[in-house]
Amino acid sequence: MALDFEQYYDSRKKLVNNFLEKRMEKRGISNVDDAMKYSLLAGGKRLRPILLMATADALGANGYDYLPAACALEMIHTYSLIHDDLPCMDNDDYRRGRLTNHKVFGEAMALLAGDGLLTLAFEVMAEQRNVKPSTLVEVIHETAMCAGNFGMVGGQALDLEAEGKKISAKELKTLHEGKTGALFIAAIRGGARLAGATDEQLLALTHFAELVGLAFQIEDDILDVTGTQEELGKPTGSDDKNDKSTYVTLYGLEKAREMSEKTTQEALRCLDMFGEKAEALRGLANMMCHRRN
Ligand code: GRG
Fold first, then answer.
1. DSSP tag of 65
2. What atom in ligand 1 is closest to the CA of residue 96?
3. CA nearest ligand 1 atom 2, residue
4. Rounded-to-integer distance, Cα 94 and Cα 147, Å
5. For ligand 1, atom 5: residue with the closest CA
6. For residues 73 and 144, what is the distance between their CA atoms, to the nearest angstrom?
7. Tens-digit pLDDT profile for residues 229-270
8. Residues within 6 Å of ligand 1 by CB
9. What is d(CA 67, CA 41) in angstroms, rounded to the nearest whole number?
10. Of 191, 231, 221, 225, which is closest to residue 289 (Cα–Cα)?
11. What digits encode the pLDDT tens for the residues 247-258?
């Protein structure tokens, strides 16, 4: 039977939201928990955890079995948004339709909320049961690499250094592979490893992750120019404000749109070998490329 993608996405999103709410009921020793919860439970598309689960589904497993590992990625992602919004980074006032963390809790507490979420992510990942310990260690190791100086943190640093400069297409690609792409790689390869992918499957899914991450980033640059604050939950035009090179400044809007579509089609071809089981992944890839927020 054909997959009802909207229903799939809504039900997986609910699972993620419920898990995160429940996990945050377990309080630490201070009020930093309130700042962590404020951003973590503020909505968001929950793409990374749902991608992890959908990848496991594509391999014939049940993604639901990997909910802790999946939700840990949302904690890493939320930490990165909190830190990215800080005055010393992008200095933004709105995120996910509400005031940014530092606007509500102050800069120091926002910094700690990010630190707390990043650390909690690895605590939660280590709580994942029903997988071989050696597999879980591999997933945790790769997630750490994707989140750190080899991945997202490295990409963010390149982004910082590139402000106000004209960078080449190759430099822009490297920057985004780290800043945005690495966490998608962690999600998709994580789901693949947890579900016991073969080397051949892992390779195809890695290629899919790289392409879908690229399409997502191109779309992000397009939305920064064409979207509205209501749709995005944050002000538009921030790339221009921060004098950033983007796929739109480098290639123009029309060419960027073409690139995003072409990259998505290429990503979809990587899923051919998974047949019907990859329907949810296909739905997510299409959603990432044709989103309005
Ligand atoms: C501070 C280490 C560190 C990294 C920051 C995430 C990030 C790196 C910067 C955010 C700036 C940005 C707009 C990046 C482009 C891609 C991106 C991560 C967009 C936001 O992700 P979505 O659309 O957000 O999945 P939601 O809110 O739906 O979860």
1. G
2. 27
3. 153
4. 23
5. 80
6. 10
7. 888 877 777 777 777 889 999 999 999 999 999 999 999 999
8. 44-45, 47, 77, 80-81, 83-84, 96, 152-153, 156, 179-180, 220
9. 16
10. 221
11. 999 999 999 999
